[in-house]
Amino acid sequence: MNLANTAFVIIASILVLFMTPGLAFFYGGLVSEKNVVNTMLSVFIMTGVAILLWVFLGYTLAFSGNIGGIIGNLNHAFMAGIKLTSLTATHIPVGVYSLFQMMFAIITPALFVGAVVGRIRFKFLLTFLVLWSILIYYPMVHLVWSPAGWLAKLGVLDFAGGTVVHINAGVTALVLSAWLGPRLAKDIPTQHYNLPWVLLGTAILWIGWYGFNAGSALAVNGVAMQAALTSTVATATAMVVWMFLDIWTTGKPTLVGVCTGTLCGLVAITPAAGYVTIMGSVAIGALATLASYGFIQLLKPRLGVDDALDAFGCHGVSGIVGSILTGVFATKAVNPTITQNGLAYGGGWHLLGIQLLATGFTIALVAVMGSVLILILRRLTPMRVDATEERLGLDQGEHGEQVDYTVGLSERLADFHPDQELYAPEFKGQLQRLQRPTVQPTHDNGK
Question: What is the pTM of this model?
Answer without folding.
Answer: 0.89
